[in-house]
Amino acid sequence: MRIWGGVALAALLSACSGGVVPHSVEPGYSPPPRHVPRETPRENPRVSEPHGNPAVRQPIPATPLAAIPAPAAPAGTLTASSAGLLAGPSLDSLPLSDAGAARALTAYRLSCPSLVRRTDASGLTQGRDWQPSCDAAKTWPERDARAFFSRWFETVQVADGKAQATGYYEPEIAGSRHRRSGYEVPVYAKPDDIIEVDLGQFSADMKGKKIRGRVAGKTFIPYYDRKDIDQGALDGRGLEIAWAADPIELFFLQIQGSGRLRGPNGEMMRIGFAGQNGREYVGIGALMRERGLLQPGKASMQGIMEYLRTHPEEGRDIMWENKSYVFFQELKGAGPNGSLGLPVTGQVSAAVDPKFIPLGAPVFLSMDRAEANGLWIAQDTGGAIKGSNRVDTFWGAGDDARAIAGGMNARGTAWLLLPAGTLSRLGGAPIATVPAPTHQR
């Protein structure tokens, strides 16, 4: 599960932090350069910013399919079932590539068992609704994946269908299992003195609310905040599971919730979210924007990092305004894992609000940015991913993924794919026809 439950990189503008030089790094420290993989013939040339920070990938424009005219979800709507539903276009009319359909089928096959077992928080389906397509997916050939989705699913528009798609990725940063010159920024495991209290046990009015803190003497107090930890609050406790080279890169990895540490000899260590200190999360990107620190064209992850690198002391103070701190654990096997406990896959997995899109379900995006178009499988969640038709697309690892996700913020239309017959059972509207464009870049 992604740490802020799938915080989108576009949300970095309201959720990112900065250029801290921790107590363990000497003044004037300069991180080693990031490795840039060799180009493959199909890739566009990369343009790097200072310190090897890949530039935002310029969007490929596209014309979204029109949504069916419908009102937006009423204020206070909590689930898709109460947001208003309409039948969408036939799947055969949608511009879905064979490669995209094959990726989606592979991911859907992985998620199927969870769809059958889980209670659908959206109120749209029951586990047994998914069983026929899950059974069929086991042996359906990827080369005919378009036919699979056409056979077993129907498209449904939730409310007005207006969608926003952002992006996230699995960061790969320079790091080492052991502290050494150039690798001196601690990556901490979760401390054992963090206590989580379920306030619902004390008052029915606080049901579902939890707080984290620590005991000092006989008093329960907030846990150490980011400034405390950067200034040594956890020193000497043996909590370091690794050491990063660059404090800024490590902070952005904290936002993503999982990533890879690449050692000086090429060895790789995968780490994932283990806990959080319970302190308030403040999006310093929004603070920077409000204070006029981000110039036009720099309102992206890459632009923020560039500013933080060139203003390290200011970046440190801004970052300390975000009191939240993330702890990690080493991950083994395939990954990273999404909220279903299953590996997420670049260019097909997405984080969603499960109250509006069932976890494990396919969703079709038709956006004003071509990279985001096609079928995505909901395999993750995100604290910043809330409401109907909100999708955070996952792009995998590496510089290409970083460059695309870092600037992804697309608008357009979303249609949810549900088992055929679902809308009729729910008493939805008759099938509407939405023409597909003859060409879409």
Description:
The chain has 441 residues and is α+β, with helices and mostly antiparallel strands. It has a single domain (1-21, 51-71, 81-186, 245-272, 280-323, 334-441), classed as Beta Barrel (Barwin-like endoglucanases). It contains 10 helices and 19 strands. The strands form 4 sheets. Strands 5-18-15-17-16-19 form a 6-stranded mixed β-barrel. A 6-stranded mixed sheet has the order 7-11-6-12-13-14, covered by helices on one side.
Provide the descriptors you would attach to this structure in a database record:
441 residues, alpha+beta, Barwin-like endoglucanases, 6-stranded mixed barrel, 6-stranded mixed beta sheet, 10 helices, 19 strands, 24% strand, disordered C terminus
How is the secondary structure organized here?
Blueprint: E1 48-49, E2 53-54, E3 85-87, H1 98-117, H2 127-137, H3 145-152, E4 153-158, E5 162-170, E6 172-176, E7 185-188, E8 195-198, E9 210-216, E10 219-222, H4 226-230, E11 240-244, H5 247-256, E12 258-262, E13 268-276, H6 284-290, H7 301-310, H8 312-320, E14 326-330, E15 349-352, E16 362-367, E17 374-381, E18 390-397, H9 399-406, E19 409-419, H10 422-426
Helix pairs in contact: 1-2, 1-3, 7-8
GO molecular function: hydrolase activity, hydrolyzing O-glycosyl compounds; peptidoglycan lytic transglycosylase activity
Protein name: peptidoglycan lytic exotransglycosylase
Organism: Sphingomonas kyeonggiensis
